Amino acid sequence: MAMKALSKATIYQVAQLAGVSIATVSRALRGSDLVTEQTRERVRAAAQELRFTPSRLGRSLAEGRHAANGIVFPELVGPYYAEVVLGYEAAAAGFGSSVLILGTKGRPDASAAVRDLAARVDGLTVMGQTVGDDVIRGLTTPVVLLARDPVPGVDTVRAQNERTAQTLVEHLLGHGHRRFTFLGDPQVAPDFKGRFDGVRKALKRAGAEPADLVPLNGFDLEAGRQATFHKGQAVVCANDEIALGVLLAAEAAGLRVPQDLAVTGWDDLLAARFAGLTTVRQPMRELGATAARWLNRRITTDRPVAARRRVLPTQLVVRRSCGIHSPEVHR
């Protein structure tokens, strides 16, 4: 005998009427291949009779989900991270998922914090070298890696670093620069390492002297202001914040840019455009959005899917801080 339709039917009532579990109702209503066509039709008929409208909370309850995912950042300060999280949150909101954010900087046990977050969300995006590969491999929740070297079997989204860094150095060599300094520690972030590797390879190929490496205590504007560099150098900074700090330090030291010092950055922040900074534009919001989309796919799919890897393109943007100004954008 059919149950009497209610104005606000629940997933439990649909399950009872169809003679299945609430998890089967959820799978059937989103067309999962794990449910037979006969069962899907029975569930749909029950839902129609009861005038049942699935809710995000109901789906999450049926599937044992939290309706939230997490993203782990090395730290939460700076425009680069802000842009990435804006892209991530916008994509996650489109899936009806909230986002929990964890910054690992300053935490005495980052690994424990990441494991704890993983237990409270449906999936996790891990950015940069926040925790070791062993922690990643030990997580049982779906994971996507962002701006980090791949781990076997895990989806990875990154931006192009090494190749574009070579293009940047070739452009500086074309201006006649022969003394190079790289500001930033390649050990603190896979992105920085890729950029430094590109600088080294381009200089070696050109037969030029290796770049001086100056690791910094941080990668913000203040780190750039405190950096060591010399007149006549081309200063390749690991990001725009460092480069903007170098511009301030050069002005304080009476050095003219680009006549006495060439300065380049990475990211293409809004401030870099106003400062006339030659830099590399990377798709920061798209990095976050891609990670969120891939994680949602991992969370909602019912069948094994091979790990994916994507490297998003970056572009050299030439402005006046490295020599004669050119509006050309180099791919």
CATH superfamily of the largest domain: Response regulator
* Main sheet properties: 6 strands, parallel
Query: What structural class do the secondary elements suggest?
Result: alpha/beta
The CATH class name of the largest domain reads Alpha Beta
Order of helices and strands: HHHHEHEHEHEEHEHEHEHEHEHEEE
Termini, distance in Å? Answer: 67 Å
CATH topology of the largest domain: Rossmann fold
Individual helix count: 13
**Cα-atom radius of gyration:** 25 Å
Report what the structure shows:
There is one protein chain. The chain is an alpha/beta fold. 42% of the residues lie in helices and 15% in strands. It has three domains: 11-62, Orthogonal Bundle (434 Repressor (Amino-terminal Domain)); 68-158 and 284-300, Response regulator (Rossmann fold); 162-281 and 316-330, Rossmann fold, CATH 3.40.50.2300. The chain has 13 helices and 13 strands. The strands form three sheets. It has a six-stranded parallel β-sheet, sandwiched between helices. The chain has a four-stranded parallel β-sheet with strand order 7-6-8-9. Helix 1 packs across helix 2 and helix 5 packs parallel to helix 13.
Short précis:
This protein has 331 residues and is an alpha/beta fold. Helix content is 42%, strand content 15%.
